[in-house]
């Protein structure tokens, strides 16, 4: 479900990896480190669910992730499916 949670985060705003790690910890009280999050972000990007771009405006460049239309569709399907399961 971690992939769906990340898609949900990105549906409201673009984020870099550390922001995702921090948001997971704030919302769920669980720490997922970079060795978990970054490979998952890479997989989501390869599948076309998210895209990324480098933000060079900062002192240290950051890779910013955005939800794609395909990612939005997958997220909508996951939410629909989970809602259906919970109602059963």
Would you summarize the structure shown here?
The protein is α+β, with helices and mostly antiparallel strands. It is built from four helices and three strands, in the order H-E-H-H-E-E-H.
Overview of the molecule:
The structure is a single chain. The chain has four helices and three strands. The protein has a single domain (2-87), classed as Winged helix-like DNA-binding domain superfamily/Winged helix DNA-binding domain (Arc Repressor Mutant, subunit A, Orthogonal Bundle). It is an alpha+beta fold.
Describe how the helices and strands are arranged:
Elements: H1 2-12, E1 15-16, H2 17-28, H3 34-46, E2 50-55, E3 62-67, H4 69-87
Antiparallel strand pairs: 1-3, 2-3
Helix pairs in contact: 1-4, 2-3
